[in-house]
Amino acid sequence: MKDIALDYSKALTSIQPKELEKIAEQVKAAHETLTNKTGAGSDFLGWVDLPKTYDKEEFARIKVAAEKIRKTAEVLIVIGVGGSYLGAKAAVEMLSNSFYNLQGEGERKAPQILFAGTSTSSVYLSDLYNLVKDKEICLNVVSKSGTTLEPAIAFRVFKELMEQKYGKAGAKERIFVTTDKERGALKKLSDEEGYETFVVADDIGGRYSVLSAVGLLPIAVSGADLDEIMRGAIDGFHAYADAELSNNICYQYAAVRNLLYQKGKTIEIMANYEPKLHFFAQWWKQLYGESEGKNHKGIFPVLADYSTELHSVGQYIQDGLRNLFETVLHVENVDEDVIIKEDADNIDGLNFLAGKSLSYINERAFQGATLAHHDGGVPSIIINIPKLNEYYFGKLVYFFEKACGISGYLLGVNPFDQPGVEAYKKNMYALLGKPGYESEKEKLKARF
Ligand code: PA5
């Protein structure tokens, strides 16, 4: 069977074989630290064994709840921010039709899946509200803490709408909550109101939680096969467990990107040639940005959808500041293809492509851009993905999570906390007049 494969040959102009040998020892040490749970953030390693140890009873309940939502709702609104929504969004986008939410119900055979609580924008929230208010709705509110401002506000708004439309008893049948097992405002409210709840485990941080109920409930509603996702994840668990760098492509990715960073390549572009991977790269961006950007260190993660971005930031990538490297998600096989036809007039001069498929052209764009970037001083790491399906989604998620843990330890940071995220929140709460933040408020007001 074909498998996910890593090709870092186009990064080797920047890395010496000796450096790879040297980092192999550090990788082994990082592997031991992660496996033996002896490093920073070791309380948050529940995701490592999750493909083996996940709660089978809850997994079955997720499928039942998803079926209920599929039968009763025209729209599922998933309320959550950061790690509480990006994994689900990544999966729905990768595994469904490119125009999933625009397809007719007959074609889609599942509710539309829309997201709320991802920003503080009133325009977005009111547009969404007006779009769905007369439709049959279910909600899945996802928040580990239960107190994050953006989803909490969105939930207030939609809970009120649900109770107006369906009454308290009816709303209760349509609201599904994914939160802490015991603690937090959302857990308390769910117990009071009788909402069905799913668990964000204590030892799994938001950005590592997609293979738990956090991601799996919305993903199941879209019609994706959860068993296949978990089969991919467990295969990833076994495939990426070898401490030897030469045997483990997941660790090779972590090692190569760290070596590139040491050479001044401080920005990693996650590139794709399939728009369906846009949100997978967004998920990756949070995973790596929040895990590694600490103590004034870390690779800055950005994403680029090609060939679109080759017509916008392509110039910079080719010829701007040489602090970039590229990781390309390269999909080997696609389900649909378009064949270029002969045109009698040939005004655009494209008859030389007649009979060729668009995927053939996409492949040449990938090869051409990768070589041009390489020649321009942008090393590439290529991740070959046989095709976009549930199995490879599960395996890729595990690949990037494990690589992130190893990479963070190689960098010398705790890859499982996010203390920096609190700074803006403290200021925002003070400026909003939240009780307990009074002393800060005046100082901040004077500065703005
Ligand atoms: O990865 C993380 O920890 C964060 O992105 C959180 O998921 C995000 O801040 C949302 O937090 P919560 O689930 O507590 O609402």
**Arithmetic mean pLDDT:** 97
Question: What's the alpha carbon Rg, rounded to whole Å?
Answer: 23 Å
Low-confidence stretches: none
Main sheet overview: 5 strands, mixed
User: Globular, elongated, flat, extended or rod-shaped: what is the shape?
Assistant: globular
Helix count, DSSP H or I runs of 4 or more residues: 17
User: How many individual β-strands?
Assistant: 10
Strand line-up in the sheet with most strands? 1-10-9-7-8
Q: In what range is the share of β-strand residues? A: 5-15%
Bound molecules: 5-phosphoarabinonic acid
Q: Report the span from N to C terminus.
A: 59 Å
What is the assembly state of the chains in this entry?
single chain
Q: Helical residue percent?
A: 40-55%
- The secondary structure category is alpha/beta
Order of helices and strands: EHHHEHHEHEHEHEHHHEHEHEHEHHH
Overview of the molecule:
- By secondary structure, the chain is of the alpha/beta class.
- Helix content is about 50%, strand content about 15%.
- It has 17 helices and 10 strands.
- The strands form 2 sheets. A 5-stranded mixed sheet has the order 1-10-9-7-8, sandwiched between helices.
- Helix 1 packs across helix 11 and helix 2 crosses helix 10.
- It is globular, with a radius of gyration of 23 Å.
- The N and C termini lie far apart (about 60 Å).
- The model has no long low-confidence stretch (mean pLDDT about 95).
- The structure holds 5-phosphoarabinonic acid.
- The site of 5-phosphoarabinonic acid has 14 residues, from loops.
